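Person: Please comment on this record:
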Amino acid sequence: MIQFADIKPISIFLPDEEKWMLQFEKAKEYFASQGLDTYFVEGIHSEKWGIASKHIYLLDGRPEQQFYISDAKVGGFLSWYLLYHIAKVMPYSHFLFLETDCRFKDGWKEKLNEELNNVPEDFDFLFVGSCCAEDKEPVHVKGDVYEFPYRGEDKWQFYPQCGHCYIIAQKAMQTLIDTQRDVANPVDVSLIKYAFPKLKIYAILPRLADQGDIVNIAK
């Protein structure tokens, strides 16, 4: 059974702007205070790289609005895609993917170790922090662990959202690489639409991590 000590924390930072570097410095200090030996990767800053979006976001069902996915979200999407490739070749079986504004609840590490015993060993994706989960018909497994099975195209969106804290098995990286090649949606929506139907998805509820100071985001 996997234990927390077996999981490698990994995160993105942007060295291109002072405000993002300040957030990175805060995150580096905070994650270290939580006992995390985090591997940080320089991400892709859309403005500095000259990235411009060309894809219309169609999932809201209103294509007449011609709403384009933002350039910043394209940079974030590509940064996450870069992380999947890096994780695929690192010598770890599981990774804790973190956004720099992730903030843990008291006692999170002990609780996570406890709940890892309740997750099936062949899991692909485990939300440690999440949002918009409790109304997605979670299936109780054991303890505070819930499964989110694929329920068909009519309920394609019945998965948790947010990307500030989750564990991914290395065996799932190739599926993420194969399915995340169309930058037309935010990262979490794209995962839900194209990757999650092919993976074994679980979540710990209630979540063990919030996103920055935002503690009242949807459950």
About this structure: DSSP finds six helices and ten strands in the chain. Confidence is low (pLDDT under 50) at residues 214-219. Residues 4-53+64-211 form a domain with the Spore Coat Polysaccharide Biosynthesis Protein SpsA; Chain A fold (CATH 3.90.550.10).
